[in-house]
Specification:
By secondary structure, the protein is of the alpha/beta class. It contains twelve helices and eleven strands.
Length: about 325
């Protein structure tokens, strides 16, 4: 084969569906064809490549090394093909994973909760993956370049090609050791005189923290930064620094005293996506989640059977 037209793309797609399902029977079912027909088309593909793509045994099919290489290539081809079909038609095709970029901010709990709820909205069409973004501009650039499908950030985008919507907000509290807190007459003096610790967050979040401190007349004498939140919490528990954390009523922050200053200190989180992707089911499901009452989790959020159904697990694999 010297040119792309020399390959039968239908045979290649049949291989992809069988390899993805790890079963000739399930692959044939998704293709709407008889297993014998699909088996014959895969054999023709193997003859065309002069490569063995599957090991065949009484236990079923397993990919050979050449089959694994081919599957990785065809995976990206047909996942992009599914997106192409969704962009030029009104059909919800799916069949591709979604990658969510999440700003490295204090928003872990809220962002993770939202992303995990999104899983239930999108799970019929593919899987959901998350990747850490070092700062807001990195997230935006990866979104524009197509390296991520949509993102979560504490800052609204400025690009006209992007859309965003608020997905929630979280309250920030300050904390230090109980012993250190009890040493001071005034909590404002703790923040002014004890080293103030920050993780290397998105710059926009650091600016919001600085602004809030200034509004309360607080200027820390010394600041420390770290990439490791756990390291700062250890220092804080030992009375070596003060830090801020997202308020979580379900967490007791063992060994730490939490406190607030005047006025609510909340940070808003936004979901961000490309306007040009609004024809994709991945973005349609994102907007569906946003437009729903975000205080209500999906009906089947804690239903284990949902994933078993979506994964098309056969009855013989399950306990009676």
């Amino acid at each position: 084969m010297n040119r792309l037209k020399d390959i039968n793309w239908n045979h290649l797609y049949c291989f992809y569906e069988v390899a993805k399902a790890q079963s000739l029977k399930l692959g044939a079912k998704s293709l709407g064809a008889a297993p014998s027909t699909i088996s014959e088309q895969i054999k023709k593909l193997e003859d065309k490549f002069s490569k063995k793509l599957f090991n065949r045994s009484s236990k079923g099919l397993t990919l050979t090394n050449d089959g694994l290489k081919l599957f990785e290539r065809t995976k990206s081809i047909f996942e992009e093909g599914s997106k192409l079909l969704e962009e030029i038609s009104d059909d919800s095709v799916g069949g591709y994973p979604v990658k969510i970029g999440i700003d490295e901010t204090l928003s872990y709990d809220l962002a993770n909760e939202f992303a995990s709820q999104y899983w239930d909205y999108y799970t019929h069409y593919g899987t959901v993956n998350t990747v850490r973004q070092s700062e807001h501009e990195t997230l935006i650039e990866n979104l524009i370049q197509g390296n991520i499908d949509w993102g979560i950030s504490a800052k609204m985008p400025q690009r006209k090609s992007l859309s965003c919507a608020e997905i929630g907000s979280f309250e920030i509290v300050f904390c230090c050791s109980d012993e250190l807190y009890n040493k001071f007459k005034n909590k404002y003096d703790i923040l002014s005189n004890i080293p103030f610790a920050l993780t290397n967050l998105d710059e926009s979040v650091v600016k919001l923290i600085d602004q809030y401190l200034r509004q309360n007349g607080v200027v820390p004498k010394e600041r420390i930064f770290s990439d490791h939140d756990g390291f700062l919490q250890k220092l804080c528990q030992r009375g070596r620094c003060v830090m801020c954390l997202p308020k979580n009523p379900l967490e007791d922050y063992a060994g730490l005293k939490t406190f607030s200053l005047k006025g609510d200190f909340k940070i808003t989180l936004y979901a961000i996506w490309k306007k040009s992707d609004e024809g994709l089911i991945s973005i349609a499901k994102l907007k569906e989640l946003i437009e729903s009452n975000l205080s209500n989790i999906p009906i089947r959020y804690e239903d284990v059977d949902l994933q078993i159904e979506v994964s098309e697990v056969t009855e013989e694999l399950l306990k009676k």
